[in-house]
Design brief:
With 541 residues, the chain is of the alpha+beta class. It folds into 3 domains: 263 residues, no CATH class; 58 residues, Regulator of K+ conductance, C-terminal domain (Alpha-Beta Plaits, 2-Layer Sandwich), CATH 3.30.70.1450; 63 residues, Regulator of K+ conductance, C-terminal domain (Alpha-Beta Plaits). It is built from 21 helices and 15 strands. β1 and β2 form a beta hairpin. The longest helix is centred in the last third of the chain and has 31 residues. The N and C termini lie far apart (80 Å). This is Aspartate:alanine exchanger family transporter. Keywords: Cell membrane, Membrane, Transmembrane, Transmembrane helix, Transport. InterPro entries: AAE_transporter, RCK_C, RCK_C_sf, YidE_YbjL.
């Protein structure tokens, strides 16, 4: 066969590279972490699990520089995101919330140190158990700076599922036991209600909305008017006309009373034939941060309505006394022109972030991070103390995030950009750590893991119970808000789903969002403090 003799054999060689393995495991881990059962899943820890499995079966070699890069990117972005609200949080109306978080973390620190010291659990495993019981990635990264990686990851892996279930069960059981009291608290609240009425009162025809006594007397507002088959905004200078369909908002009984004087209630929606648009706007103007919606007068200034606020990936309905926080995403309804003006007001480029990541500024922040992390402070009796690259990155991020600009260097980048950098850093770090500890984790599993699981439950439940008792009975925080504070203090978002089943209002979410940035930083510092305490309590070798 002459043709066959002329054929050229084609062989394909495939060379495995560290980067190929890293991003393949990141992809698989993210897919696994996104799997949820009733809203609960492993999240970003799925990357760590995937890497540990690969490390056990294939013994891939980790790349240390990728782990360090991941740590720096993650904590730097944590600092940048928390910086604008971290220091201001102590001055806001949520001081009770902050005090309750401090109780939560203080009790947690004492409880964790006591159990580790009394039971003789290795420090690295103990700190890993704490991070796993709080399901906290920042706590895990902080613990890895001071203790052997295999010990910390082993403790984290054992404790994570028990911490996840322990927190959910504690909140579920507590809410069920206290359901009568929760119901009583909910019944005392005033919920806003909206209804549509056809204007039939001749006395109101031709009046300006701001002059309508019926609206003032019953403390309601008109949020929209359907006239000539088109929806238009309702400002104080809008003239009412007979036959208008008015969307009235307020307390249910007030809406009913006002509606009886306005005219007949109709079942009409304003969604069709509307001239109004809906737009999501990021709050980036420093001059509006920490000011309430009532103080800003958004409805009067722009004739636009805010329908919800998204903060720390949590969505809730705004109320008039709700202060805005830097980075909030507000969903507003109004005409295109009104929304354009509102967007300039809430996020004007001269008051806010760069429209892209400024590489020069990022390099400056990284330089500051490594400079701070390289400072060594001698501590009598404890040896030398240093923040390391992790602590340096966190402090540098907080400084730049708080001030926004230092000289010509920008410290506030687009929210999406910092979120991507943070998730990328966490994935890079988890892949390398998982590859290094996968083998040792399986080999370390033994009967003592049962005791470690019990300790993990105690690490989570004891501070939660103490925080609830102090928060509710001493600081007088309502039950659902108290659990919102606890979930925020533990940076544990799935717990909110349990609370929302009994309280669907914005209050637990606001409580969670108010303390989340503070807790994110304090839990990292807490791990460092516990490590120092445990080292000082350890007998000399």
């Amino acid at each position: 066969m002459p043709e066959a003799e002329n054929l050229i054999a084609l062989e394909i060689y495939f060379q495995r590279t560290e980067l190929l393995v890293t991003f393949l495991l990141a992809l698989l881990g993210i897919a696994f972490g996104n799997l949820t059962i009733k809203g609960v899943g492993f999240g970003s820890s799925g990357v760590l699990i995937a890497a540990m499995v690969a490390g056990y079966f294939f013994q891939f070699e980790p790349v240390a520089i990728l782990a360090n890069l991941g740590i720096v990117l993650f904590l730097l972005c944590v600092g940048l995101e928390a910086g604008p609200s971290f220091f201001r949080a102590f001055k806001q109306h949520g001081r009770r919330y902050i005090a309750n978080v401090l109780v939560l973390l203080a009790v947690s620190g004492v409880n964790t140190v006591a159990i580790i010291a009394l039971t003789g659990v290795p420090i690295g495993i103990g700190l890993g158990l704490f991070a796993g019981s709080f399901t906290s990635s920042p706590a895990l990264i902080s613990a890895l700076q001071f203790s052997p990686e295999d010990e910390v990851i082993f403790g984290y892996g054992v404790a994570y599922p028990f911490g996840l279930l322990g927190v959910i069960l504690f909140i579920s059981i507590s809410v069920r036991v206290l359901r009568d009291k929760v119901a009583a608290e909910l019944s005392e609240r005033s919920h806003l209600h909206s209804a549509v009425f056809k204007l039939e009162n001749d006395d109101l025809h031709g009046q300006l909305i701001r002059d309508a006594e019926v609206l003032k007397r019953h403390d309601v507002v008109v949020s929209g008017i359907l006239r000539d088959l088109s929806v238009r905004g309702a400002s104080g200078s809008t003239v009412l006309q007979r036959g208008d369909l008015l969307r009235v908002e307020g307390i249910p009984e007030n809406v009913a009373s006002a509606g009886a004087e306005i005219g007949e209630e109709v079942q009409e929606t304003f969604d069709e034939n509307s001239e109004l648009d809906t737009r999501s706007i990021v709050v980036e103007n420093i001059s509006v941060v920490n000011r309430s919606l009532h103080d800003l007068g958004i409805r009067l200034r722009f004739n636009a309505t805010l329908t919800r606020i998204i903060r720390a990936n949590i969505e809730f309905v705004p109320v008039e006394d709700q202060p805005l926080a830097y980075g909030d995403v507000v969903v507003a309804v109004g005409t295109p022109y009104q929304l354009d003006q509102l967007e300039i007001f809430l996020g004007h480029k001269h008051h806010t972030v760069q429209p892209r990541v400024d590489i020069g500024s990022l390099a400056a922040i990284l330089f500051l991070a490594f400079a701070i992390g390289g400072v060594v402070v001698p501590m009598p009796g404890l040896g030398q103390f240093s923040l390391g690259i992790a602590g340096g990155a966190l402090v540098a991020g907080l400084i730049f995030g708080h001030f926004g600009r230092i000289g010509n260097f920008i410290g506030r980048f687009p929210r999406n950009a910092t979120a991507v950098l943070k998730e990328l850093g966490l994935a890079l770090f988890f892949v390398q750590v998982g590859l290094e500890t996968g083998q040792s984790f399986v080999e370390s599993l033994g009967f003592e893991a049962v005791y470690y699981a019990l300790y993990a439950i105690l690490f989570a439940v004891v501070p939660m119970a103490a925080s609830f008792l102090v928060g509710h009975y001493m600081l007088r925080i309502p039950i659902s808000e108290c659990f919102g504070v606890i979930c925020g203090g533990m940076t544990f978002t799935p717990g909110l789903d349990v609370i929302r089943k009994v309280d669907a209002s914005e209050r637990p979410i606001v409580a969670y969002s108010s303390v989340y940035p503070v807790a994110l930083i304090l839990v990292i510092a807490l791990v460092q403090g516990m490590h120092l305490a445990l080292v000082s309590l350890s007998p000399p070798v």
